[in-house]
Specification:
There is one protein chain. The protein is of the alpha/beta class. The chain has two domains: 62 residues, N-terminal domain of phosphatidylinositol transfer protein sec14p (Helicase, Ruva Protein, domain 3, Orthogonal Bundle); 177 residues, 3-Layer(aba) Sandwich (Phosphatidylinositol Transfer Protein Sec14p), CATH 3.40.525.10. Helices cover 46% and strands 10% of the residues. The chain has a five-stranded mixed sheet with strand order 1-2-3-4-5, with helices on one face. The radius of gyration is 19 Å and the shape is globular. It comes from Galdieria sulphuraria.
Length: 270
């Protein structure tokens, strides 16, 4: 198996970066899952075969606590979803509707943290469209883009949510929240390394209480909330930020030194 299971040596890392080292039980489960997955890939595309590498199967095993049959069912469902959602086609030729979604800086991949985890910035105040399938396509495009930027065994990402300007106008419906959660947990399991929520208002906490029971317990432990009036002057935030981020990569609005502005044309062409 490829070197995608690097051992975490820094006990001060916030969240997760790499896969954990394999014990004997997991090795046996992987062998069993590999055999079962190969049987359903007989008529699969080369992209499906490439996607189902050992690192991928291990993520699905971890998401189902090494229960092989449950992991297999989730892999099967994901393969079917990727085909129906046309994920590869989405990445090869971005639809104009997705580019319209990304014309504002409401959701994009921007830089990495000090451990190499891509940072997905989410800024609800820049919501520029009504709810539709294109919003989910934009989310999937963003996740795929982040994954394709991962290197050196890193398999986790950072979700950075800035709630400044959050209101009922840009609050997604419960239905959209559930669909988003399904995409993240079922079709991209074990990809979240850390979620950072800045200045979440009372309105968000109301919705969070509703969806929290549907969020995996391990995921909940990766979510950090910060209430700060000025990120550059908040000691608590800056201590945390310096543990997680290379300040040259972190955007200036959050105490970093990265002052590059989001350019949608450049973003979709890179």
């Amino acid at each position: 198996m490829a070197e995608s299971t690097s051992i975490v040596k820094d006990n001060h890392i916030k969240g997760e970066v790499w896969a954990k080292p394999l014990d004997e039980e997991t090795k046996q489960c992987l062998q069993s899952l590999r055999s079962k997955v190969n049987s359903i890939l007989v008529d699969g595309s080369s992209k499906d075969v490439e996607w189902c590498d050992d690192a991928c199967l291990l993520r699905y095993l971890r998401a189902r606590n090494n229960q092989v049959d449950k992991a297999l069912e989730l892999v099967r469902r994901t393969l079917e979803w990727r085909k129906n959602f046309e994920v590869e086609e989405l990445m090869n030729k971005v639809p104009p509707q997705v580019k319209e979604e990304g014309s504002s800086q409401k959701l994009y991949v921007g830089g990495k943290d000090k451990y190499g985890r891509p940072i997905i910035y989410m800024k609800p105040k820049y919501q520029n469209t009504k709810e539709s399938i294109h919003q989910l396509q934009h989310l999937v495009y963003t996740l795929e883009k982040a994954i394709r930027r991962m290197q050196n065994g890193v398999e986790k990402l950072i979700l950075f949510i800035d709630f400044e300007g959050y209101s009922m106008r840009n609050t997604p419906s419960i239905k959209m929240m559930r669909e988003t959660l399904t995409v993240l947990q079922d079709y991209y399991p074990e990809r979240l390394g850390l979620a950072i929520c800045l200045n979440a208002p009372t309105l968000f906490y109301t919705f969070y209480k509703i969806i929290k029971p549907f969020i995996d317990k391990n995921t909940v432990q990766k979510i950090y909330f910060f209430k700060v009036n000025n990120t550059k002057k908040s000691k608590e935030w800056m201590e945390f930020a310096q543990q997680v981020f290379d300040l040259d990569e972190l955007e200036v609005d959050y105490g970093g030194r990265n002052d590059k502005e989001y350019d949608p044309e450049e973003y979709f062409s890179s």
